[in-house]
Amino acid sequence: MMDSExxxxxxxxxxxxxxGPNIITAAKSVNLQKINFQKLISELTKDTTLVxxxxxxxDQDTLNSFYAILEKDGIRVERVAPSKSVDGRLILQSIxxxxxxxxxxxxxxxxDRDFQPLIEELKKxxxxxxxxxxxxxxxxxxxxxxxxxxxxxxxxxxxxx
Length: 161
Description:
By secondary structure, this protein is α/β, with parallel strands linked by helices.
């Protein structure tokens, strides 16, 4: 058992959950054609211990080479069938990982308002939630509920590929 001093100085564990379609579409709308996801993850998890990163996207053959690059960089790709919900898979897996205490901080890279109930539930199980999104695409409720909002507009040049 840790004493209060070592508990206070422990570096929190962060897990990143990327809503691929949301982030890629939002990036293109601000003329960011390609994202360096390794740099994005590094920027999002400063001052934490990264314990995992999952990218959720459609299961289309045209994305195979892109997904292979992500996986080579240590990003786990969760391919979601076209008739299924990327959001639903992300929600389920982030809650399961939270309940299993695999992370302290959930970093949600998305601005989709559908994630409002997820943030509320994660906070009920004592998880810290950071939301990362572009300013023009983030739902106001997500910014308000998150423990921290990370503006991707502010790091756009750092994450450009």
